[in-house]
Amino acid sequence: MSLHPVDQDSDNESYHSLRFLYPNFEAEDPEHYHPGGFHPVHLGDTYYGGRYRIVHKLGAGGFSTVWLARDECDRKWVALKFVAAKHSSSISDKSLRVLSSQVAVSNRARGPATFMSELGRFTFEGPNGRHLCLVLPVFGPSASELSTLFSCRLKPWLARKVGYQAAKALADLHAQGICHGDVTTGNILFTLQGFDHLNEAGVYRLFGPPVTQQLELESGEPTGPEAPRYLVKALDFLSLDFNFISSNTILVDFDQSFPISSPPKKMLGTPAEFLAPEVAVGLPPSPASDVWALGCFLFRLRGGLSPFSAFEVDCPVELVRIVEQTLGDRPAEWGDTLWDDFGYPTKNPRKGRHVAKLDEKRSLRDLVYKIWDDQPEGNVVNTGVPGCQKRLYISEDNEPFPPCFGNMIWKPTAVKVDNVYIYGFDDESDAMLDAMPKIAEHEAALLYDLLSKIFVYDAKQRPTAKEILDHSWFHSTTSPRTTPT
Predict the structure, then answer these.
(1) Which residues bind ATP (predicted)?
(2) Annotated domain spans of the chain
(3) CA separation (Å) from 38 to 111, 300, 308, 403, 436?
(4) Contact 468/296 with Cβ under 8 angstroms?
(5) Per-residue DSSP letters for 353-390?
(6) What is the pLDDT of residue 9?
(7) Is 410 exposed, middle or buried (0-12, 13-18, 19+ CB in 10 A)?
(8) If 0-12 CB within 10 Å is exposed, 13-18 middle and 19+ buried, where does residue 127 land?
(9) Which pLDDT tens digit goes with each residue over 16-32?
(10) How far apart are CA 371 and CA 373, in angstroms?
(11) Contact, 259 vs 178, CB < 8 A?
(12) Which residues of the chain have pLDDT under 70?
């Protein structure tokens, strides 16, 4: 979820006065359904004079929900992105429309698309205000969904390929004088192959009917017009015995983008774990801050999480502290930075305070060399070390992905170490996780070399996105793994 100061009041209020009962599947936060928030969408709804009809749900984020819709005029599938009312006016701003148009024109001129181009946009009035709706091509899951610590990992070759594609998209964007401003694994989407040939009956035959759950208030009262009658579980491409997901990706979401010559004065909405430290302390973003985010993206692709992610890293000040743990003391000129109660930099001495650095040190090299490699053969790791032989409860999380995805992704929770399935972090799991095969020595050395060039405090010393494209890590091949330590 992106961090935005504009959201602080509403978010804090939602934590203290929850209105809705949460569904038993992953969905958008129902607390976003209020005046100024999300628009309530139902299956079968039509928009833009009946042209677009809602068929299924594709996903949701902090500012929008995204739905699979049928374009009744052109008889094709599109994705409708419904932006929260309070963010619709800023995204509809003329400068952003010009920026999006500039990206689209250059994108077509350069050959194979590296950015998502809008198919159209419209606005409409709903019970929660006036909303912007973007009409987009349909794409598959994000790199975030396919590279998440225990639930899904990319195969090494695909991580490198997707990393290269992201760097290429960023280099192309910077060459046009534009910063993306929000380079994260959530904003790189996999393209689909063969999905356009499905009709509505084919979608339901393959994926099943949409899974819904009635939305209920904590009070037991019926929901009002500001909320949908039910929530919908997003369509799951990984649940099929047929693979629509290609190995190509595209860069999306230009809501935070800006001309390099005119950086924004307000802090970007980049999630803290991808935020460059100079931006975190209040300095203007730049192509170099995009490159820092790209470095976090590359580590996440290969390692399943960002190098600067932790439970506590949910605001700029915590990001700066964990970066300092990893890279050493921050620049002296940042030492006087004051932080408000939300963890954001402030120049008001009455609202800010200094924050002490963390004592424990972290090593970027160790983080890289401890990355797991590929799926263990047979999803089994035998250490030969006597230990706990308990059997954990077996659930669908322990089922590997269907064979059609075998060359692209693998599931850590389907792996057994000494007869125990991997399940997460706790005091008893450390030895299991350490036993997992580690990244190949030569690839670890290359990845560490690349990241150590990117993760530096001095933004001027970072390589450009174009220079990164020549790095050998992207072109490395599989070799024997390092011995677990």
Answers:
(1) 86
(2) 18-136+197-236, 154-184+263-368+441-472, 374-437
(3) 36, 29, 30, 38, 42
(4) no
(5) B--PPPSS---HHHHHHTSB-SPPGGGEE---------
(6) 34
(7) buried
(8) middle
(9) 468 999 889 989 999 99
(10) 6
(11) yes
(12) 1-17, 91-113, 386-394, 478-485
Amino acid at 58: L
Going from the C-alpha of 333 to that of each of 11, 278, 330, 456, the distances in angstroms are 32, 11, 8, 15
Contact 301, 142 (CB under 8 A): no
Q: Which residue shows structure tokens 């629509």?
A: 244
Q: Which residues are annotated as a binding site?
A: 86
Q: Tens digits of per-residue pLDDT, 420-471?
A: 898 888 877 888 899 999 999 999 999 999 999 999 999 999 999 999 999 9
Q: How far is CA 180 from the centre of its chain?
A: 14
DSSP state of 189: E
Q: Which two three-digit tokens encode residue 26?
A: 């992953």
Class of domain 154-184+263-368+441-472: mainly alpha
Give the separation between CA 220 and CA 91, rounded to whole angstroms. Answer: 36
Handedness of CA 335, 341, 345, 346 (dihedral sign): negative
Residues 156/443, Cβ–Cβ less than 8 Å: yes
Tokens coding 97: 């429309």
Binding-site entries for ATP: 86
Q: How far is CA 23 from the centre of its chain?
A: 22
Q: How many helices (H) and strands (E) does the chain have?
A: 13, 21
Give me the CATH topology for the region 18-136+197-236: Phosphorylase Kinase; domain 1 (3.30.200)
Q: How many CB atoms lie within 10 A of CB 9?
A: 10
> In the prediction, which pLDDT does 481 show?
45
